[in-house]
Amino acid sequence: SQQGEEDPQALSIQEGENATMNCSYKTSINNLQWYRQNSGRGLVHLILIRSNEREKHSGRLRVTLDTSKKSSSLLITASRAADTASYFCATDDYGNNRLAFGKGNQVVVIP
Amino acid sequence: EAGVTQFPSHSVIEKGQTVTLRCDPISGHDNLYWYRRVMGKEIKFLLHFVKESKQDESGMPNNRFLAERTGGTYSTLKVQPAELEDSGVYFCASSYSGRANEQYFGPGTRLTVT
Can you tell me the distance from the alpha carbon of B12 to that of B113, in angstroms, rounded to the nearest whole number? Predict the structure, then answer.
């Protein structure tokens, strides 16, 4: 089965800097989503990008999708300490509603 | 609008005991999903309800896990008997019928089996 897979790296940045993380997947998808999980909390839906979209913005978030390379990136601009969290991408198996998650990227924003 | 809620937030039980997790989806969401993340691994799909019917239970690990959604509202996930490897965080999510993939997650229940 296909699976979203982030580049398995922990990222530590200074407040105000930009944070970029990547995700690759293996099969055809309807859409790709990014979620955030703060320590001890649930998953917060950040943004969904459909397979026919190439880029999407939401506030300080910018997501790109390259279906030819089966990859996506999440950019957080002007990071804040509150952005410290784990970030997961999730893809859907084409034709069903199961989400496949990657291992997650830990981002630490230093005030 | 209230989000997805889960109860309890944390449960500690001994191996062999039974635990029941509860999920209340967002009102009006026909789709309800269970996922779990065991230590150090990815979040994995367990099953999907559409209203009270099991649409997809391909992710259920074994017959010690039983999920129900009587009446198509809240759902329960029972683990009986619990094993050490069942420890992890169990997430519930819900979505509208028209936007089934836009799933809204609850805070999760952290299950610790000792």
Answer: 6
> Six-digit token pair at A25?
């997947």
Residues A37 and A40: their CA atoms lie apart, in Å, by: 8
Residue type, B89: V
Q: What angle do CA B17, B23, B26 make, to 5 degrees?
A: 175
End-to-end C-alpha distance for chain B, whole angstroms: 37
Q: HEC string of A67-85? A: CCCCEEEEEECCCCHHHCE
3-state secondary structure of A83: helix
**Cβ within 8 Å, pair A42-B91:** yes
Interface mutation target, options B103, B110, B112, chain A, most CBs of A under 10 Å: B103
When CB atoms are compared, the residue of A42, A43, A99 closest to B45 is A99
**A18-52 pLDDT, tens per residue?**
999 998 888 888 889 999 998 767 888 899 999 99
Element (H, E) at A23: strand A19-24
Q: What is the DSSP string of B44-75?
A: EEEEEEETTEEEE-TT--STTEEEE-GGGS-E
Residue A108: how many CB atoms within 10 A of its CB? 14
Report phi then psi at B68, rounded to 5.
-140, 155
Strand A61-66 relative to strand A55-58: parallel, antiparallel, unpaired? antiparallel
Q: What is the pLDDT of residues B55-111, one digit of tens each?
A: 999 999 999 999 999 888 999 999 999 999 999 999 999 998 877 778 889 999 999
